[in-house]
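To whoever picks this up:

The parser on our side crashed when reading a file containing two proteins. I've narrowed it down to the boundary between the first structure block and the second sequence. Both blocks are reproduced below exactly, byte for byte. First block:
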Amino acid sequence: MPALICGSLAFDTITTFPGRFAQQILPEQLHILNVSFLVPTLRREFGGCAGNIAYTLSLLGGQPLVMAALGPDGSDYVERIESWGAGTEYVQMIADSHTAQAIIITDADNNQITAFHPGAMQSAHLQPVPVRDDIRVAIVAPDGRDAMLQHAAQLEQAKIPFIFDPGQGLPMFDGTELMRFVAQASWIAVNDYEAQMLCDRTGQTLESLSRSHLRGVVVTLGASGCDLWQQGVRTRIEGVVASAVVDPTGCGDAFRAALLYGIERGWTLKRCIELGNRVGAIKIACRGGQNHTLGPLTPNL
């Protein structure tokens, strides 16, 4: 059965800074910040959270159903998604906007600075969650502000369990709005930085959030693996050593595809996360969010 993926489709311009941001940015001078990074390499990739998640879910053998917005420059992206066997009937074309664009700089420590132009993504709310009996699970990933708010409410009304994955969109929401997402969602997936911001804005702790109706709070920790919080108990699930560390872009999205794949099949969250850690380690060894292959990886651990 299909998994509904609500999120962004974007073009990524990815560059690499061979130094370290920490050596170029002076904390005591942040009020007059004026920094330029020399980036010798540059490439353009298909990206956006919905596209990246759908790509890996397709590799795993899932059925992604993408709900997003593109500009008139995005027709090639629709063809690309359809080539994976993924559904695009809920991808809308916005005539007067460019497809969303991300410009990403990655330093030698795999820290990233991103500038993002939302473009057509700001109209993603115009496409409502479809009324279908075959959608078993969904994810609300970073998207336009109105789209995230409306799609979460529509999924709750349709009684479709979903993962709330605020990602880089988290700063758009205040504590009250974030608690509304929490109340509507069945799972939360954040990285460790986002987890701290979520707690700061809501006045909650990961422990208290996990003691609610939520089936799990998943906090990714990069190479260190992942913390799974359920009913106040934290379980550390160790990471998988990557064969090479090339590009972190899209690693979190690959991980979330594994969560969707396992949840749709009734796996335990621990098993879903173990698969996610393996997939993330494979993705980080490849440039871009949609160029990796899973090779001999067998989802049925």
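<<boundary where parser fails>>
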Amino acid sequence: MKNKTIAGIRRGNKFSPNHVGNDAAIFSLTVQHLQAFGCTVHEYIESDLQMREIPEAAVFGMARSKQAVRRLRQLEQEGRTVVNSAVGIGNCIRGEMTRLLTGNGIPHPESLIFRTGENPVGALEEAGFRNGWVKRGDSHAVHREDVTYVRDPEEAHTILKEFALRNIPDAVINKHLTGDLIKFYGVRDSGFFYWFYPSDIHHSKFGWEQINGTARGIPFDPTALEALCDRAAGVLNVHIYGGDCIVSEDGDIRIIDFNDWPSFAPCRETAAKHIAECIWNVTGFAENR
């Protein structure tokens, strides 16, 4: 019988801004469900990927640092199974995510990518951008200033210069979309999907949701939302995911952000079992009961 021992990597606190407890909670619940399935789970912290040997043949976790993702890629190249995959984690970094979603026909805001040393004003004006969002392209947001709402191209240029001073090499600028903001969580190919209006429960990491204001309940097709998000997860090569989308006045849905393994805070009691089942299936443990 296959050895059902797996390594679990906790997320470093730096990559859980204002959500350290929530990220820890979904990880711990997932561990409990895996143990109930018969797995032995050896827990590590994110920095252990550089400091310790990881002998387990299967790995799951929430690591996001560049060094950790490089190490996970090495483990995959050695034949280990990693959930979410290192490739998928890297694909959810803003710049790569934007290129992959737009390149594969996933509805997404009009976007332009710039080096932070560039002057974007001419290109933004030519593309018809006024108000929009300047987002660091090389990482997930770890500080509130990593995503900034701007009202005109000149303001966008100012933010790019500030990014350059912080040694951020590139940035994505999304055109602002009006409509209802929705947050979603899912586990690909599992049947689990959850969505909600963050304005209804005052759910926020940095307060960015206030720009779109209180959701009005614009009619849309929830089944289409789930199918779109599962399709995006496939494009980005992640199984455990979450993100944000905008529903426009005519019911069109556009994904504005997509993350590998978020906190699942509003639904984690239900989500954790589905996450554990996903890990159980992807690692092949389910075939060797």
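After patching the parser it read the second block fine. The chain has three domains: 5-84+268-288, 110-175, 180-260. The chain has ten helices and twelve strands.
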